[in-house]
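Q: Structure for this?
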Amino acid sequence: SQTIHQWPATLVQPVGSPLSLECTVEGTSNPNLYWYRQAAGRGLQLLFYSVGIGQISSEVPQNLSASRPQDRQFILSSKKLLLSDSGFYLCAWSTGVRGNTEAFFGQGTRLTVV
Amino acid sequence: AQKVTQAQTEISVVEKEDVTLDCVYETRDTTYYLFWYKQPPSGELVFLIRRNSFDEQNEISGRYSWNFQKSTSSFNFTITASQVVDSAVYFCALSEAVGGFKTIFGAGTRLFVKA
């Protein structure tokens, strides 16, 4: 069966520090991978998605970047965190094309920038 | 452009009551997909249902049922005989065939079920 691992679960970082969140998927090949952010009490905002190794699409201009060094590994990074980067970050995967399949989510990382 | 509106921010019911969560969507595409997800306090989103734009048949799964009406661009979710374990945030989402992998989520509805 497929599983998705996301870590760390919680993170408190000072403003201006770097960030690296990692997500890995097991039990499937060539998944579509996603990073979402959920601000407190709000819906999910799609940040990045990837349909293959090295292929990253960014949905909103921001202080973050994403990379996919391996087929089932997706990394969210920042060189210098801002206070506005605080939120709940969710990694997800799906199969299929054209948005016709559901996504499966990791347990999320709660990031607090202080 | 895609848009999903969940007008109900929070709903509070007493156990065993029925509750309906509203979802209204906007899309220019004729082929699209609608989803409902549940986010319990643990934070992980759990997939509940997917509907494509060509299938307006309503669906029932245990205490859950979904009413898809293209004429009103709505995809409402009803929980019958609610239970405390149903307390969570529920998200409606939309993806378009043209838009590919971009799924838009509504702001979510927080459901409180009191014993």
